[in-house]
Design brief:
2 copies of one chain form a homodimer.
Chain A lengths: L1 H16 L5 H22 L10 H10 L2 H20 L9 H16 L8 H4 L2 H5 L4 H39 L16 H12 L9 H6 L4 H53 L1 E3 L2 E5 H11 L5 H11 L6 E2 L1 H5 L1 H6 L2 E5 L4 H5 L1 H4 L2 H11 L1 H19 L5 H24 L2 H4 L5 H26 L5 H15 L7 H12 L1 H26 L27 H4 L10 H13 L3 H11 L4 H32 L5 H12 L6 H5 L25 E5 L7 H8 L6 H4 L3 H4 L11 H4 L2
Antiparallel strand pairs in A: 1-2, 2-3, 4-5
């Protein structure tokens, strides 16, 4: 079916070339371009959704994938998750009538014998996982699920080891009548020993758990040393290795499928636009231009031209299938188009701007020495911040520093073209300006409040302090090696955010369960010293426990924010056994299961995957191996003498501007040649998929790329989706 | 020089072939073989020492590399390191006269104005690093040194981040008048804050350090969460990534050099033995046989034959240079020669052994069911161990279990050939037998002591308990997946031991410094409750401190063993700030430097390298990619139908034996063909270098292997060592 369809389109195209101009044909052509553009866009962003190819279907699909819709969906998911703030146990309780309504609905449902245990809250975050936009999240979950069996075997062996050591500990220490520093009997109950030794694996109770035995006899420390070496160092490394290895393996398989799906989309687009020429079908330049414009309306004409030059190496005016398929990847390479602009002051006040004094100023500002002077100022500022701000001298110096920083920005704006200074990739300029302006506003507000009334707002002062310290971070940018490390961290940022989502989903589930199990068992009283029972967190069972002694009362499950903070503390692991023992004391020993399961899921699995991912992403960044595609683009840029030095760009010493001029003018004119320059933001990835693809580039076998015609017959059903509407045109 | 030398030798060989039989020539030939054998042995074990090639020199060199010498050197190093046990602060103080002698020497040296501060103790472990046998250790140190600059940049950035956060903490919390749970002022001194936040990176004081701020206002927890995410999770992952990446890079370079040196040695050996044939020099089979015998006197004739068959693929009777060079690697592949033997009982008591009852017994023992029954017995035994052993019923059951285990071993010895059962690779059989025999002896000894006198030795009972539990470990062997994991761990064992050495060197240095700084400041009293001052570790400064409250008095630097245990606790990290604060209280705040430096060196660098190495070794084991050399050997074994199923071997269900028959008989006779079988212990590495080489196999460029004639001119000086004595022969 898809085949006959193709021939029809080709015929139509042929007619168009032969001079046919009926609006019907024109229409069909437009639709082809529109459909092809959707395919290319799907390939570019690795979407893999089946949609109807009727004109209406395309319109609906474009609406569905529009960013507005995404934002609306995310907003509703946020509202759904935020319900936890208002539900019992709530931070802001609902008004009575809403609670009543809720109760009535619940009552009616119960009366009607509908099964309605309220476990839906626990499943709520799964909504976040199941929307189109969280492909990465789903991929992470899938990879975890696939890695699980291998991890389980290691886990069983690890648990076997813990059980064996516990048995040994019971026999060695159980009968000696030792006591812990809290006066409890030491290692007499098997299940308690298992828990204590499990905690020891996390190192949270080291060396306390060892001390009674060590004090009794020095040789008994050997038992604990062997235990820690085997279970903490070796087994935990093996966990990391197994999680890493399996996660990577499955991710690689997923990326391979992604590459295949992308190719399939591009082949679909090619079929719609191809025209026969000689032996093989090709796409003409004119069609290609329209396609690129349809895919990315904001692309500049020069950028488009550059991409065409890369695709059509021999300047033949048409490209074959392999060159066409590159398009999705080419569009994903971020090319920064630069145009040299004249400083506005030079236009409006040329006399002053070109004077000797002005030139000298600009020279000074652009000099390296200027940077060193300001680095020194920052260091002096750091010392002043450290001193007591109630000293009036120190307090006034703050105004001096603020003035100096403002002066720096103004001088730079004078020396450099402002639009170039605030170009999108000039991270540190933006950072500086925002911080300084915020600090200025906050400092003025603070002193205004201070002088007008006697009211001294701590909140504003806190913000002022934070901003003052943040200002100092700028010094990092002056040191090249530091900049490199930070750039790498910024690059792997999106990936880390994916893990952020993953962790929020898991935290949410555990928070919901924890709130059901433990809400209200432990109380925290603000300004507690005045209230009765504050010394045992409002629960007499905790009287004298380590939990109460350590002032941990605020670590409770009484609302969703406290729960999240508590879960974070459990993730950090230290003292988690004290936190767990607090909750087991007020409920039962079975509560340990909750904490151990949390530890296994979050620390052993998720954090290990996180570490594995950071490692892998770092290695990719470190061992720079630019992909062939990027190299060819870079080569072309150099060939056309349109290149710009990356160092120059980073040193922000050139006057440049990122433009988005949208002229669809005639091709082949390099009218602004010296004023238009390109650079490849070679290591920034538009999509996480691009990073993933790059990570596994070396491992992807060539046949994934050289996927040939034969495979087209085995297209997945969703891609050979029947298209009756289109057939009838 | 080396060239002329070669020609001379070749001529001598030529004469020998042509029927020259003078004892002089014979002698020269023997010497050539001897020297070549040394080169091959150097290549095999990756030694790279320059030695004189005179007959005397060779003899001395062979003596030097002999294992006896190694043992002697290791013994003296051990004695040297063990001095720490007797030196002040000592476990066993020296007798007075020795101390006096020491003082007199010291006094004389001082009188003679010789510079003699006694810092040599700290440098003592460097001796261990500098002997020939610790190549791996030196390699590890070199790789660390090379990775250091990169790690330092990340470390500076990390410290900058800690300093900035500390400044922010000072401004945010310093003026609020908060107190910690111990009643001290919270976050008022900058240096204290830096230390507290450094400790927070190690998570050792989480969540305690956060609680005062968190109790004051819930939003302040955000400060700590951001801090932990950035500094603990991200920076520590980056540390691992940077250490991993750089360590691996440098190690790869080292391995490349190793491969080159090995090749050079083999080329040297080839030159000594080559004879011209056609275009290229070759080595004849006869010479090769003598060489292999000289290199590895214990090799069996069949094994040697197998190696020749692999080298001489076309059965020409001689091999060229490339095939000859393989020899070092071929010798490193562990081939297990198996011979089926007849059970001794069958020889001496054939009637009984072949009777129906006997056959049935053997059948039962070899059945899977037999294994299951004993797994069940082990599980029941585990429950019994857990129960109270003072119950007479339980106490008697121990004898039953001992009897059952003994019966199992005897039955297995009856069913399987004893020498095959105790073959070198049958780890679990050895393990079982040793454990059972020890348990039997200890149990008998224990009950003898118990009944004869009223004295009940706790030490022997402890050993009995440990052996009883160890017996249970055997159950792991029955589960295939567990066996695989354990085998992997055993395989990477030697590498882990290298790190053990590395850690001992570092511990020793820190222990010596720690003993100088802190000896005697903290006291531990055995049975302390009776002595005054026990509640503050004999130091009034510690009265009421967390150190004393936690019963940490035994964690001190008063002798070398305590120091090592304390350093291990510091490596585990948890509560290290409490330990450190104990020592800062009794000395000065500057003592913190010692503990922070220890943390940086051991935890951030050494442990990360350890994790990196375990990961890398695990990946190699997981993603099995047998090297080409092994595959060709395996192919040959299969071709000759001498192979044996690895599973069969592991299941120890065949009657096999490892032999070392040393017959240098005529070649080409497969007289014992059906009774001699081979298997490759394909994943066991004779040397750590072999593991390393395998780890980086995929990354080593082929030119390292295809290193050709051209390179021979650039031989390193030590290899073109002048050889006057040899020239005169």
């Amino acid at each position: 079916m898809s085949h006959s369809n193709k021939i029809e389109i080709v015929a139509a195209d042929q007619n168009a070339v032969n001079g046919g101009t009926s609006s019907d044909r024109q229409n069909g052509e437009n639709r082809n371009i529109e459909l092809a553009a959707v395919y290319v866009s799907d390939a570019q962003y690795n979407r893999n959704i089946c949609f109807s190819t009727s004109p209406q279907g395309i319109r609906l699909y474009k609406f569905y994938i529009h960013s507005c819709m995404r934002i609306i969906i995310l907003f509703f998911i946020f509202v759904d998750l935020a319900l936890a703030i208002f539900e019992e146990p709530a931070i802001f309780p609902f008004p009575l009538w809403l609670t009543l309504l809720d109760m009535i609905i619940y009552g009616i449902l119960t009366e009607m014998h509908l099964y309605c245990v309220r476990w839906s809250r626990v499943l709520r975050p799964l909504l976040l996982v199941n929307i189109t936009e969280s492909r990465q999240l789903r991929r992470a979950f899938r990879s975890i699920r696939n890695a699980l069996p291998h991890v389980l075997y290691v886990f069983f062996l690890f648990m076997f080891s813990v059980l064996m050591f516990s048995l040994m500990a019971l026999k060695l220490f159980g009968k000696r009548g030792l006591v812990t520093s809290e006066g409890r009997a030491y290692f007499t109950d098997y299940l308690d020993i298992v828990f204590d030794l499990y905690v020891l694996v996390t190192t949270a109770n080291s060396p306390d758990v060892m001390m009674p035995a060590y004090n009794y006899g020095i040789m008994f420390s050997v038992f604990f040393i062997i235990y820690i070496v085997i279970n903490t160092y070796i087994f935990m490394s093996v966990f990391l290795a197994v999680v890493y290895n399996n996660y990577k393996k499955h991710l690689k398989e997923e990326v391979r499928q992604l590459v295949r799906a992308k190719r399939r989309n591009m082949v679909q687009a090619f079929r719609l636009l191809q025209e026969p020429r000689g032996d093989e079908p090709v796409v003409m330049r004119e069609t290609w231009n329209r396609l690129v414009h349809a895919v990315q309306p904001g692309i500049s004409a020069v950028h488009r031209e550059l991409l065409w030059n890369v695709s059509d190496e021999h300047n033949r005016g048409y490209i074959g299938r392999p060159a066409f398929i590159q398009l999705a990847d080419l569009l994903n390479i971020q090319v920064i188009t630069l145009k040299s602009r004249i400083h506005p002051l030079q236009i409006y006040l040329p006399g002053i701007y070109n004077s000797a004094a002005s030139r000298c100023t600009r020279c000074v500002v652009q000099h390296r020495f200027f940077v060193y002077v300001y680095d020194l100022i920052i260091l002096v500022n750091a010392v002043f911040i450290g001193l007591d701000e109630e000293n009036p001298f120190i307090s006034y110096s703050e105004w001096v520093f603020l003035g100096l920083y403002l002066l720096e920005i103004l001088l730079k704006l004078y020396a450099f073209e402002p639009r170039a200074f605030y170009a999108r990739h000039q991270f540190w300029n933006w950072f500086d300006t925002i911080i300084i302006i915020c600090a200025l506003i906050a400092t003025i507000l603070n002193s205004a409040l201070k002088s007008s009334s006697n009211y001294n707002s701590r909140e504003i002062l806190d913000i002022v302090f934070i901003l003052r310290v943040l200002r100092l971070i700028r010094v990092v940018d002056s040191i090249k090696r530091f900049r490199a490390i930070i750039n790498t961290l910024i690059k792997i940022g999106p990936t880390i955010l994916t893990f952020g989502q993953l962790i929020i989903v898991i935290y949410y589930i555990f928070a919901m369960v924890g709130m059901e199990l433990f809400k209200g068992t432990i109380q925290f009283f603000e300004n507690g010293a005045l209230k009765p029972g504050h010394e045992f967190c409002g629960n007499p069972l905790l009287n004298g426990s380590a939990f109460a002694k350590n002032n941990y009362c605020r670590n409770n499950f009484n609302n969703v924010i406290s729960s999240f903070i508590l879960l974070f503390e459990l993730t950090v692991v230290n003292q988690w056994h004290v936190l767990a023992s607090g909750f087991t004391t007020v409920t039962s020993n079975a509560a340990r299961i909750y904490f151990v399961v949390f530890h296994i899921v979050v620390v052993i699995i998720i954090i290990n995957i996180f570490v594995a991912f950071v490692l892998e992403a770092f290695f990719v960044e470190y061992n720079v191996s630019t992909s062939g595609l990027q190299t060819s683009l870079e080569k072309k840029i150099k060939e056309l003498e349109l290149g710009i030095d990356q160092d120059q760009l980073e040193g922000n010493l050139i006057e440049n501007l990122e433009t988005n001029d949208n002229d669809l003018g005639p091709s082949g004119e390099h009218k602004g040649k010296p004023s238009v320059m390109f650079t490849i933001a070679s290591k920034r990835y538009r999509t996480i998929e691009a990073l993933l693809q790059r990570m596994f580039e070396a491992d992807l076998s060539p046949e994934d790329d050289a996927d040939d015609e034969d495979h087209d017959n085995s297209l997945s059903p969703e891609l050979s989706f029947p298209n009756p509407a289109f057939n009838t045109t």
